[in-house]
Amino acid sequence: MTTASAQAFFSTAAEVAGALIGLLFVAISVSPERILGPDASEIHSMRAAATLTAFTNALAIGLFGLVPGFHVGHTTTVVAILGLLFVAGAVMRLLPGVRAKRVVWTDLGFFLSLAVVFVIQLLAGLGLDRNGHDAGDLQTVCVLVIVCFLLGIGRTWELVGGQSARLSRLLIARLQAHQPPAEPDAGEEE
Fold first, then answer.
1. Handedness of CA 105, 161, 25, 143 (dihedral sign)
2. Contact of 51 with 24, CB cutoff 8 Å
3. pTM reported for the whole predicted model
């Protein structure tokens, strides 16, 4: 796989990223006071910014991957570094909220996910900078673009108030639904 052979992927990724960014702005406009207003939750505004970062990351890689003769490794490296700087800044901004118990540690999981994506992307970008014909690094970049879409879509769902479908919550709810009711102690009168 070469950058030239990935042209169709980059074209599609750029189109999808553009559409998702547009939909993110629609989602924000549905309840702007919750995300951007003076009473907005810290975590909601940072989730929106993180989602935009994930989609913009994918957009930049897709668009620069389409430029004839341009090496996508450079773009991948630069946007990964910018993404890591964003994540570090977001976590630092949210730490006072964690200390004040307005933000719980589990809310920062998305930022950890993004950090992992950006670290892997940075390594793949550096690999492409060293060897522009490394099919493995190029495939990694393409997969990470898809991961950015999926992470961003999940966060957008939460931004519009959609119910979280975390597997752990679903399993706990199922287990609790199938537990038999507790029997009263023998010493208690009914």
1. positive
2. yes
3. 0.77
CA separation for the pair 7, 101 (Å, rounded): 47
Give me 183's structure tokens.
């029997």
Residue spans of the domains in the chain: they are 7-177
Q: What is the mean pLDDT of residues 133-155?
A: 89
Question: Could you please report the per-residue DSSP string of 78-131?
Answer: HHHHHHHHHHHHHHHHHHHHHHTTSS-GGGGHHHHHHHHHHHHHHHHHHHHHH-
| Inter-residue contact 62 to 145 (CB < 8 Å) | yes
| Residue 125: both structure tokens together | 């970008």
**Tokens at 2, concatenated:** 């070469």
Picking from 37, 174, 164, 23, the residue whose alpha carbon sits closest to that of residue 107 is: 164
CA within 13 Å, CB half, 123: 8
Question: pLDDT category, 2, cuts 50, 70, 90?
Answer: low
105, 107, 109, 112 alpha-carbon torsion, rounded to 10°: -90
Nearest in space to 55 (alpha carbons), one of 31, 88, 91, 27:
27
User: What element of type H or E holds 24?
Assistant: helix 7-30
